[in-house]
Input
Amino acid sequence: MASIEDIRTSIINDPRNARFTAEGWKPVFSAPSTAVITIVGQTPSADAQRSGLCWDDRSGDRLREWLGVDRETFYGSGLFALVPMDFYFLGDGEDGHGDTPRPWVAPQWHPQINADLPHVQLTILAGEDAQRYYLHQNTEARETQTVEHFEQYLPEFFPIVHPSGRTNIWRTEHPWFDERVIPALRTRVHGIIDARQ
Output
């Protein structure tokens, strides 16, 4: 079984990532062996790529608010693995929504990373790309229905919408997310963390 550092080196040396490596960019993910919760997002933002920290942006602030954890717990406790569907900032895209994760990245690297995370009890799937990959959904699956019926995927997975500002309108139109899903998410996360500490 490859170590996380071996995996990181392999990602850097993969010819398909040559343009990022040439820029001096490192793959953005965190996978401490002590993690009990994995969060799978989309692609790192420009801010996250610059800092080398997943979720080091406004979306991350909102995500931590939903989880009910502070930055120190999120980054410094060793309880969270942060593994996006692609490890590099791919650009903002013409629509401003960011580029879609490259389809080969997760199948190539996620199983290797997950094999080094023996204590994970919950994987939070933030966004449609993560949900389709981990829940083996076809392209006709609707994120709203997946998130609304999150209980179906417990205890292994917890699907949520991506915590970007673009979801504000969606959340207004679907008040059950704030009323029911976020409290359930927070309860599940803190139950796992409290049992570990």
